[in-house]
Amino acid sequence: MAWANIGSLKGPKGDKGDTGEQGKQGIQGLKGETGPTGQTGPKGDKGADGTSVTAGTGAPTGTAVVGSVYIDAATGNLYTYKA
C-alpha cells in the first residue's frame, strides 16, 4: 500500500473581491520608547528687556528696568524700581 495523490482541495486563484467595511477602533497600544532628541532649532531674536526679581542684603542701589523687584533678605523689605 502507498499514498496516491488524487487531486487538491485548492482550486484556481479567483478574482479580487470588493473592499470590506472598516472595522471598529481597537484598544490603545502600549506607550512606545522615547525617540532620539531632535536637532536644535535656530536662535530666536533678542527680546525686549524685562523686569526681574533679585535679592540681596540691604537696600538696593543702581538702576534697573522699571517694574523690577528687589527683596532685602535681611529685613524682608520689598523694593520696586520706578522711573
Automatic annotation (TrEMBL):
UniProt biased composition (Low complexity): 50-63
Highest taxon listed in the record's lineage: Bacteria
Any Pfam family hit: Collagen
UniProt keyword Transferase, yes or no: no
Positions of the UniProt region annotated as Disordered: 1-63
UniProt keyword Cell membrane present: no
Keyword annotations of the record: Collagen
Basic and acidic residues bias spans: 12-21
Protein name: Collagen-like protein
Classification lineage: Bacteria, Bacillati, Actinomycetota, Coriobacteriia, Coriobacteriales
